[in-house]
């Protein structure tokens, strides 16, 4: 029997070779093919000239009123020009170096040209000649992402035959109530209209339906994770000693901010409750997350549990060790460090002590999640900068204990739009306030020729006993990118500041070398640290007051914000200087925003708007899913509606047993999943 999930080779015209090429586009089944939507449509409709913006890419259709003329110029360059009657006007059309198109331009025949509109000259620079309406049969031609092996026309034909053979098998899986409530186009009709809309409105309603569908499916999965974390997995009751905890917080050298108090309470409530904690702690750089981590680790220890803190780099692990030892040891908590460079003998001892319970808290890198690391009674796991850890690594660490409570900390403020998408299965606590008395960091943007002036100014800071970071984007000279070489800058600075010590830190160094350099810098035996972005996360040197970033436009806002957060950690006024000659509008915009705000949440929202969710955080590991059609910024309202509906359904006890949700259940779970989950 035919099924929509049949392999794509079952379609006529698809042999093993073509199937392989289609697989490169991620298309394995007929359903994949039918759901491979165009990323845009060529609009072959009449458009009034007055409605076209300058430089807009459009399709103009009209009668050829003057034949094509080819003229040659320069070295092997040519230009093909002709005239087109469109919307009662005669338009000049020019194609560069495509003289071979001349034959397609026939006097008094209709033609459609895709190109860029020059409003001043009333002319079109042609990019492509399209089939006329009579050929394609519609005003909209779908345009797909293709590769060298599969052409647009091939894909269109395959999709057409896919619909002919399998179109009737497309089933609705959204609950009928939602289809009605949101007036959604039925699935079969929507999938077809995504490819071959007859009019613009069709394509819009089809998109609305498909976007809702993909957001809803995603939110259902998020809510399922949440359900599994909370309802199914038995959590620990960490009955900490309230009195001891009070004593601990009162012993701190400062009063907690209201936000710190609030999040500490939220976390402590989770610890105490028997449900499993799965919480994200967000707070801008310097908002005081480490102290909160110390408090809740101490809480776990007072209840007889062990705690683990996992961080992405050895430098960070070292630093956290320092702060936590300071805070925790006076209260008789035994803290140890476990990283990749822990010596064998020491490592063996630490493993023993973790296993027999002599160690209370361990801080470490990935070394914490190796097989032979065992805990006696792991109760709380905290990961810092969680987006750098893969889901699997977190899972392994979690499995080391009897399902310990888990807290993820991140200094990368995530706009709410992203938070509910990427971390929708978690509870979220936010520290939205900085400790009192901080002097805001002053940020300046200068052009490269002003560098010398900046360096002269910086000397004053150095003479006053302060330190500075200088950040360069890459370590190796890459001619194509024209990026400044960190070593070169290092040498330049050495020459510029003969009376100060300059150090160099980069990603290619061994951990131990890095460590030594960081220590030298921390101890102020070195005043200037030239570095690539390895220091991006978390280092704390309060005496450093200047952050100088070279080629700053090459960094995303999130990274710039992180880098800037390295200064302004002491009581002195601090500065961030961005040296940049941005190559485009976006680069300039980023520099401007940086000088205008130091609020991480504002910056991250801007970043999201400017770069789009896919590029956010500069990587795809951020845990933010890629949607085929929906855009979590532009379609935020739909995302939110989909979330509310998913929450409502998961709120129904055993919803999967309801006949109304049968097709939804079948869509979300295959047979084995269903069995594991519902039994
Ligand atoms: P984060 O980890 O969020 O970047 P930290 O925990 O490193 O921030 O805190 C930054 C600095 O602020 C540290 O030196 C810390 O001791 C200090 N700090 C934290 N909380 C407070 C507070 N409530 N009042 C004053 N200083 C604080
Ligand atoms: Mg608990």
UniProtKB/TrEMBL annotation:
InterPro entries noted in UniProt: ATP-dep_DNA_helicase_RecG (IPR004609), DEAD/DEAH_box_helicase_dom (IPR011545), Helicase_ATP-bd (IPR014001), Helicase_C-like (IPR001650), NA-bd_OB-fold (IPR012340), P-loop_NTPase (IPR027417), RecG/Mfd (IPR047112), RecG_dom3_C (IPR045562)
Listed CDD domains: DEXHc_RecG, RecG_wedge_OBF, SF2_C_RecG
Molecular-function annotations in GO: 3'-5' DNA helicase activity; ATP binding; DNA binding; hydrolase activity
Any Pfam family the entry gives: DEAD
Helicase C-terminal domain: residues covered: 450-609
Reaction it catalyzes: Couples ATP hydrolysis with the unwinding of duplex DNA by translocating in the 3'-5' direction; ATP + H2O = ADP + phosphate + H(+)
Keyword flag DNA-binding: yes
Keywords: ATP-binding, DNA damage, DNA recombination, DNA repair, DNA-binding, Helicase, Hydrolase, Isomerase, Nucleotide-binding
Domain Helicase ATP-binding per the UniProt entry, residue ranges: 270-431
Matching Gene3D superfamilies: Nucleic acid-binding proteins, P-loop containing nucleotide triphosphate hydrolases
PROSITE patterns hit by this protein: HELICASE_ATP_BIND_1, HELICASE_CTER
Enzyme class: isomerase
Keyword Cell division on entry: no
EC numbers on record: 5.6.2.4
Any Gene Ontology biological process: DNA recombination
Family of this protein: Belongs to the helicase family. RecG subfamily.
Function: Plays a critical role in recombination and DNA repair. Helps process Holliday junction intermediates to mature products by catalyzing branch migration. Has replication fork regression activity, unwinds stalled or blocked replication forks to make a HJ that can be resolved. Has a DNA unwinding activity characteristic of a DNA helicase with 3'-5' polarity.
Protein name: ATP-dependent DNA helicase RecG
Organism of origin: Vagococcus allomyrinae
Taxonomic lineage of the native organism: Bacteria, Bacillati, Bacillota, Bacilli, Lactobacillales
Gene for this chain: recG
């Amino acid at each position: 029997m035919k099924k929509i999930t049949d392999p794509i080779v079952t379609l006529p015209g698809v042999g093993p070779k073509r199937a392989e090429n289609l697989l490169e586009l991620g298309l394995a089944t007929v359903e994949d093919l039918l759901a491979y939507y165009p990323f845009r449509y060529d609009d072959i409709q009449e458009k009034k000239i007055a409605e076209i913006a300058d430089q807009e890419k459009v399709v103009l259709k009209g009668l050829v009123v003057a034949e094509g003329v080819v003229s040659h110029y320069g070295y092997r360059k040519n230009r093909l020009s002709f005239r087109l009657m469109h919307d009662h006007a005669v338009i000049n059309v020019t194609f560069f170096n495509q003289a071979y198109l001349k034959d397609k331009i026939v006097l008094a025949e209709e033609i459609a040209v895709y190109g860029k509109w020059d409003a001043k000259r009333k002319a079109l620079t042609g990019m492509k000649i399209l089939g006329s309406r009579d050929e394609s049969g519609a005003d909209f031609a779908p345009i797909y992402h293709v590769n060298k092996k599969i052409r647009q026309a091939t894909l269109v034909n395959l999709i057409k035959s896919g619909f002919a053979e399998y179109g009737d098998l497309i089933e609705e899986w959204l609950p009928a109530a939602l289809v009605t409530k949101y007036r959604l186009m039925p699935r079969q009709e929507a999938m077809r209209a995504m490819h071959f809309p007859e009019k613009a409105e069709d394509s819009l309603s089809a998109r609305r339906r498909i976007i809702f569908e993909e957001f809803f499916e995603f939110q259902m999965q998020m809510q399922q994770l949440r359900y599994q974390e909370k309802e199914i997995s038995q959590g620990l009751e960490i009955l900490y000693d309230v009195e001891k905890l009070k004593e601990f917080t009162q012993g701190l050298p400062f009063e907690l901010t209201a936000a710190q108090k609030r999040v500490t309470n939220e976390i402590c409530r989770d610890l105490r409750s028997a449900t499993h904690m799965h919480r994200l702690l967000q707070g801008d750089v310097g908002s005081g997350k480490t102290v909160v981590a110390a408090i809740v680790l101490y809480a776990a220890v007072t209840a007889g549990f062990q705690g683990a803190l996992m961080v992405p780099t050895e430098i960070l692990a070292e630093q956290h060790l320092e702060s936590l030892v300071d805070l925790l040891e006076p209260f008789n908590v035994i803290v140890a460090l476990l990283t990749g460079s822990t010596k064998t003998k020491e490592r063996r001892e630490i493993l023993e002590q973790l296993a027999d319970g002599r160690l209370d808290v361990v801080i470490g890198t990935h070394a914490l999640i190796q097989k032979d690391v065992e805990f006696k009674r792991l109760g709380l796991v905290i990961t810092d900068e969680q987006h750098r850890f893969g889901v699997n690594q977190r899972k392994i660490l979690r499995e080391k204990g009897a399902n310990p409570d888990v807290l993820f900390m991140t200094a990368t403020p995530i706009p709410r739009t992203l938070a509910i998408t990427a971390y929708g299965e978690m509870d979220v606590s936010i520290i939205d306030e900085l400790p009192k008395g901080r002097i805001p960091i002053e940020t300046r943007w200068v052009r490269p020729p002003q560098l010398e002036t900046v360096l002269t100014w910086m000397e004053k800071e150095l003479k006053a006993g302060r330190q500075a970071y200088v950040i360069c984007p890459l370590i190796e000279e890459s001619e194509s990118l024209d990026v400044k070489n960190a070593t070169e800058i290092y040498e330049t600075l050495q020459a510029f500041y003969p009376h100060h010590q300059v150090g160099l830190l980069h990603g290619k160094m061994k951990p131990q070398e890095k460590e030594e350099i960081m220590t030298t810098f921390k101890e102020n035996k070195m005043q200037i640290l030239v570095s690539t972005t390895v220091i991006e996360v978390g280092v704390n040197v309060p005496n450093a007051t200047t952050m100088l970033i070279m080629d700053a436009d090459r960094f995303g806002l999130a990274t710039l914000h992180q880098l800037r957060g390295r200064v302004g950690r002491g009581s002195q006024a601090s500065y961030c200087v961005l040296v940049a000659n941005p190559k485009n509008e976006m680069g300039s915009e980023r520099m401007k925003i940086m000088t205008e705000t130091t609020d991480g949440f504002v910056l991250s929202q801007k970043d999201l708007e400017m770069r789009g969710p896919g590029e956010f955080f500069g990587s795809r590991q951020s845990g933010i899913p890629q949607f085929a059609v929906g855009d979590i910024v532009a379609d935020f309202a739909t995302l939110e509606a989909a979330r509310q509906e998913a929450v409502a359904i998961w709120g129904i006890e055993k919803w999967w047993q309801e006949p109304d949700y049968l097709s939804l259940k079948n869509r979300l779970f295959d047979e084995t999943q269903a069995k594991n989950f519902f039994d």
